[in-house]
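Hello everyone,

My group is preparing for a crystallization screen and wants a predicted model to guide construct design. The compound we'll soak is fe (ii) ion. Before spending weeks at the bench, it would help to have a computed complex in hand. I've included the protein sequence and the ligand's SMILES below. Output in structure-token form would be ideal because that's what our pipeline reads.
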Amino acid sequence: MKYRVFGSLEDVAQFKRTLPEFFIVDNEEFEFQIYVVDSVETLLRLPKSFQKKTFFYIKVKDQKIFEKLSLYRVDGIIYPPLDKNKILNKLNIDQQKLSDSLEIIKSRVIAKAESLPSLPDIVQKLLKLTTNDKSTFKEVINEVKKDQGLVGKVLRIVNSPFYGIRKEITSIDRAAILLGMSTIKNIALAAFSMDLFNKNLVNYNTDAKSLWLHSFVVARIAEEIGKLHNDLDSDSLYLAGLMHDLGKIILVDFLTKPIVFAKDEDEMFGINHAETSGLILKKWNVDDSIVNAVKNHHNMVDDDVYSIAVYYANMLSKMDDFERNMNELCEKLGISLFDLSPRVEMVLQENYDEFF
Ligand SMILES: [Fe+2]
Ligand SMILES: [Fe+2]
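Reply:
Good plan to model first. Here are the tokens for the complex, ready for your pipeline.
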């Protein structure tokens, strides 16, 4: 539930602590509002009636305030100390009901995530492939070749500006020779994932192509970060980047209006897209380090190198606060900015959007 608080920063923080399940907004999308009254002057400045559910929080004991209160038409008055149950009573909200309905929708989201088909054989083989596994690699390439749709997608990515190949490559074998096994494996995963994103994502203010492209860029940045740190496996990070926002394709079926932040999902469903992506990957038997990093990609978790890498790969892909994020990332992982910068810039410089 969204509400608005008119008061000092400290008041806002206090309400936040008292009602952790509710969300404070500063736009018109609130369901109720609270005006903090700390003096009679404040009170006199307020409108006498309100269109939406409104409460006054009378912070000070002042006879003058009490005398004037009857002039105002509000839905309730709150007095200190702030107490959750007291407020919920005033709001006429049955907390049990509130959490019950969240539980129901959350279980529906989880059931939907669980109902996604398991990974095709070929993708499972790709995931298990290691760099010294040359014979299986051949086998996998042969399987990729059987799926013409997949071949087309792989070649489209191979020939994208990122890989910097001037002469167009028209066969998978040639691509494998030029780019190496690990790159081809990752490109095949990216090609496979294109179909997963095929959904109407307008409530996330994006579309299938853009979300896939974003995921691919995050995958590439995460992979580059992984190459610079001994405790990180860059292929795992690539996979984490590729799938980090996959939960959106599940949650979007439950969205009835556009949303911007992961916390809006928490509020509506009791689960957000990062956790949902984690559930999907868990179901696919992906390694726990990847599952955790994906789950945490909107929360900074300081003590897990995989989570740090995916969190910052996602931030860097958006290019907001780029310098600061680069510095923080390098500091947290103990890697050199000098080494990382050219790698990340290489990923971000191309205008993929025109290409794919
Ligand atoms: Fe996300
Ligand atoms: Fe993302």
